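Internal tracking record. Fields below are filled automatically when a chain is submitted to the structure queue. Please do not edit lines marked as system-generated. If the sequence contains nonstandard residues, flag them in the REMARKS field before resubmitting.
Queue: standard
Priority: normal
Entity type: single polypeptide chain
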Amino acid sequence: EKEKLRDEQRISFIATMSHELKSPITAIKGQLEGMINNIGVYQNRDKYLKRSLAIAEDLDRLVREILVVSKLDTVDFNFNKEKFNLSPILEEIIKNLDYIQIDKKIKTVKKIEKNLFVEGDISLLKKAFKNIIENGMKYCPENGLFIVEAIKLKDRILIEIFNDGDSILEEDLNDEKIFEAFYRTEKSRNQETGGSGLGLHIVKKILKSHKFSYKIDNRDNGVVFTVEIPIPEKNLEISR
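SYSTEM-GENERATED OUTPUT FOLLOWS
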């Protein structure tokens, strides 16, 4: 039954992926044909070459995300497991996304304790938290508030990432619909944001593979993404 369900999910994913790839390819072809034949508005080649490049960059990002999903879905996939300090990684992710914060005049508040050691695959967890933080910043309105809090509790590390903005429909939160591949809600989460549609899907796969609990909740005037990480055994070797 599990294998049958996996096959059905794989077929559904491939069908949806094909549709997602077809749209940008069709757009690029149409613009290039228009420029080659000097048709109407496409005579302004500089403008539409830039548009075609932007679509190609989005397409490249989508293909790379699909490769990540494919890797995570491999039956014999095993991630590297080691103990490392998550605190500087969260700081680095926020710093590297400063262009979004500057462009949208976002007020970012960081409450990240030092030396938050976790156990898992560094590259995959860095990818997951980058997707969560970047996603939150993209849906944060101009002059909005963005908060990243990471603290150590008695038996776990609690990470909460909050962004101002519209709440998410409850039907999209139910049964983790928002984590489905290429799933987009009607209000604001669509292709115009520049997302691949796979960001949260990849987050789900990475966190589940590490057995970290996670959830998204609506808060007053915003949305919060919560991750809870079990504190690793003290006798494990600290690699960072």
